[in-house]
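User: I'm new to structure prediction. If I give you an amino acid sequence, what do you actually give back? Let's try with this one:
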Amino acid sequence: MHLELGPIVISGAALDRVRARIFSFTSKINIHTLRPLPVFLGVTGPSFCIGADAFSPPISFSSEKTIKKHEKCTSRISRNLAYFATNYTIMALGTVLVVALMHPGMLFYVGITWGLWWLHLVVLREDIKLVVMEKDLNEIMSPNRRSWVLYVWTFYVAVAKCLHPSLKGLAISGALVLFHAIMRNPAKLASDMVRSKSIASGAGIVTMTAR
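Assistant: Good question. You get back a string of structure tokens that encode the predicted 3D arrangement of the chain. For your 211 residues, that looks like this:
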């Protein structure tokens, strides 16, 4: 099995590897892998300041071999994607939501499309007769024709109104995730997790004392 995209041919083994990576990433998205915000941002201390060693480039601009640099970058990205899978998902969804809210026209067309489909399905399910001026609209515009019109309208809205904002949201969220995955130093995650738990427990003790 393979996939042909014009002159580009993707082998079945490559597709299997991509599916395995996607499944491996999505299987880690749950509440148990949601890391605390201080750990995600590399925050240290009660002042909520980002630690100087929390973010660092995975490679140094020296005479190191290109292969080793590539391996270091790939290893860091893989480790961070596995560790912060839920955080990255929330950040990506939040970014896409913000971009969508910046395009009210797109939301307006999406709302109209959803409403038209809902009305169409209700008419079909309840077998409602659409009669205007003693004329049955179901004879003029049959359910099959209405479905095709809605398919064409939905395709138009998806391409003309939603494609550009969606690509923009995916690009911005992808850039943010990739930047964090490359720059977040995995070697400091264990110490940051311990520090975050100690800060949280200290805050809990202060709260109990105040009560």
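You can read the tokens as a compact description of the fold. Here is one thing that stands out. Residues 1-33 form one domain.
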